[in-house]
Amino acid sequence: MCATGCIVGESPEAADRDHAAPLVQDGDGAPAGGSRDDLGPRSGAGEDTRLMRLAALGIVVVGSFVPLWTQAPDDANFRELYDTNRWFELRNAIDGKTAPALYRGAVASAFNRIEEAEKYLRQAVRESPDPHAANEARGLLALLYVRLGRSSDAGRLIDDFLRVEPDRSDMRNLRVVFGAFADRPNQSVPSNQRATFSCPVGEDGVRLPASVNGRPVNWLLDTAANTTLVSESEARTLGLTAPGIRGQAGDLAGGATSSRSVVAARMMIGRTELRNVPMLVVPDGAPWNELKPGERGAIGLPVAAALQTIRWTSTGTCSTGPLAGSRKGQPNLAFDALFPLVQVEFESRRLEFILDTGNQGGTQLWERFARDFAELVKTSGARGTERVSQIGGSNEREISILPEISLRVGGFDTRLRPAKIFSRPVGDTRRHGNLGMDVLRQASDVTIDFSSMMLTLR
């Protein structure tokens, strides 16, 4: 929807103070933070901050979140993997070994092992040698709660963080949005059962039939949206008229729009019931005015993950809810704070992409891909431009174009033809790109299983 990464709070330029800090991303691909690097580690006070931005449909919701990462006598290898958000590698590194609670909690959070993550991160808070060190684990726990829609719990942790570091503008900005939810119940799932139903699946993505406060909607599934988005006119129709706390939603090109936070009392998708669902309301206008009433919303990650499993077919059948039995195999999905990452194979190497079902503009390759495959880009790439539409407007961006590359995604061979490589401000410098619906549509059957953290294409 928002095309390439939108953010609420600080400007995208601020997010790039650290070369590895990803921005949040939006429905067209550019990330806006959401990784732990975005809220990422710092080796000491006064160094570069790393932005955490929440995205909703390509919208980045509020400001940056940067816990102060203090030095500790940790294993150097663990620390390096942790500091660079290499969750798959850190998982393998600590397996069967003694590791500090912080790293175990971070890995558990990345692979959606919620109870384990809470256990170890709370332990890390208790055992930290000083309040600033405790904020490192506290920040990770706050992001876990944001991802789960537990905004009230997240708000309390952010308050605890600010009591230790009251001058942290990134956390104050984050508090602006979640202050609206701090005195309301957390999102909850009273019932979640398997359901199969018809759903529109096409070039504009997957739309899930749902009801919000008893009114039917067909909203876009956007796994890279850090919160659910709804247009102003749609919000009025659904009775989401409470004033909410207002903020700024910006995009990766420096554009911005106003926003306000609301809570939907009840939402139904299939046979899954959700209560107290946090949402962000943005003004009418593109892309909303191009859609029919009832379609002017996007289902973000906290709702998508609450469904546990989402499956769709190219013929327009969707299933949601828990699967019977456990799935075997090594997870190829991980959460980098507020974004789902998927491992993709290219030329016998494993790359990391943001999984973005809201990306209708085409899969993007980012600066890290160009860096890691510099010779390929040099010998086969051509210069070009691409118009990128974001919530703050549309802009022409210079790109490099490869005629074609093959990507193996979820056990399925896909082709990206052509393959477009973007540089900043589109994307970030740590992930290899943003995987969109043009790749996912090449499979006839797609399953995103947040319980087993596996993406499967057939």
Q: Which key terms come to mind for this protein?
A:
six-stranded mixed beta barrel; 25 strands; disordered N terminus
How would you portray this structure in words?
The chain is an alpha+beta fold. It has 13 helices and 25 strands. The chain has helices spanning 12-15, 76-83, 87-94, 101-110, 114-127, 131-147, 151-164, 169-178, 232-237, 301-306, 367-372, 374-380, 437-440, and strands at residues 6-8, 188-193, 195-198, 201-202, 205-212, 215-221, 228-231, 246-251, 256-269, 271-282, 297-299, 309-313, 317-320, 333-336, 339-346, 349-355, 364-365, 382-390, 393-402, 405-409, 412-416, 419-422, 433-435, 445-449, 454-457. Strands 14, 15, 16, 17, 18, 19, 20, 21, 22 and 23 form a ten-stranded mixed sheet that branches. It has a six-stranded mixed barrel with strand order 5-6-11-7-10-9. Helix 6 packs antiparallel against helix 7 and helix 7 runs antiparallel to helix 8 (169-178). The longest helix has 17 residues, at 131-147. It is globular and about 55 Å long. It starts with 5 loop residues before the first strand and ends with a strand. Residues 2-74 have low confidence and may be disordered.
